[in-house]
Design goal:
Length: about 260
């Protein structure tokens, strides 16, 4: 098994890609703790995980609160004696044009829309990485894999989300330099269009337009993104660090 007996913390495990990562890690033999703010989503993930052999625990936690992240990491180390893998997957969107003028009326992306996305997507990733790294440094081993996005290179109506995901790439590369001497590899994944709860709400005509831009002519299944997380979290990827792997069906080729 790719991750046999590895201890992993997965954020945002309550739906979509996060749920797929939890299930994939269990299939690969990992011992999993997953956190989310969505208790109902967590319960559904744990229900599906019950059909897969493996050890899994779910907790409601806010990854933007230092004391909550510290509590979760401490509980994992107390239970298992170590933390091998951190998957930073929790994220939100609050889409809006930065500035919109229609019929003489000006509308802006709000401060709340900007702050909320940066708080969860960027600060949450940084905070979880910072606290998990302390445990990994002590054991001289670790794997940190974060979910970025193709939006990191810019996306209409998502200046907040794009900035947060570009920040995730920058944090990944910086931590890779800072933590390499402790045998800790740090990478991220930039998914393109993926079949999730968020994308299910996209109108059919817009979905068709998005798919037309993807050379493979479809959105990814969450399990396809999870497979790359599993690889980067494994010892098969032991000489890969500081990288952002685009898993986008060719969407950004030539971009």
């Amino acid at each position: 098994m790719l991750l046999k007996d590895k201890v992993a913390l997965i954020t945002g495990g309550g739906n979509g890609i996060g749920r797929a990562i939890v299930l994939r890690f269990l299939q690969d033999g990992a011992k999993v703790v997953t956190v989310d703010l969505d208790q109902a989503g967590l319960e559904e993930t744990l229900k599906e995980a019950g059909q897969v052999a493996g050890q899994v625990r779910g907790e409601v936690a806010n990854i933007t609160k230092r004391e909550e992240v510290q509590r979760v990491v401490d509980s994992i180390v107390n239970e298992h004696g170590r933390l091998d893998i951190l998957i930073n997957n929790a994220g939100i969107t609050r889409d809006a044009l930065t500035t919109k003028v229609k019929d003489g009326e000006v509308k802006y992306m709000t401060d709340e829309q900007w702050d909320a996305v940066l708080e969860v997507n960027l600060k949450g990733t940084w905070l979880c990485s910072q606290i998990a790294a302390a445990a990994m440094i002590k054991q001289k081993y670790g794997r940190i894999v974060s979910t970025a996005s193709v939006a990191a290179i810019g996306h209409m109506g998502q200046s907040n989300y794009a900035a947060s995901k570009a920040g995730v790439v920058a944090v990944t590369q910086t931590l890779a330099l800072e933590l390499a001497r402790f045998n800790i590899a740090v990478n991220c994944i930039a998914p393109g269009g993926t079949k999730t709860r968020m994308t299910a709400a996209i109108p059919e005509n817009i979905m068709a337009s998005l798919i037309e831009r993807i050379p493979l002519k479809r959105f990814a299944e969450p399990k396809e993104i999870a497979a790359v997380h599993a690889f980067l979290a494994s010892d098969e990827a032991s000489f890969i660090t500081g990288q952002c792997i685009f898993v986008d069906g060719g969407q950004t080729v030539g971009a």
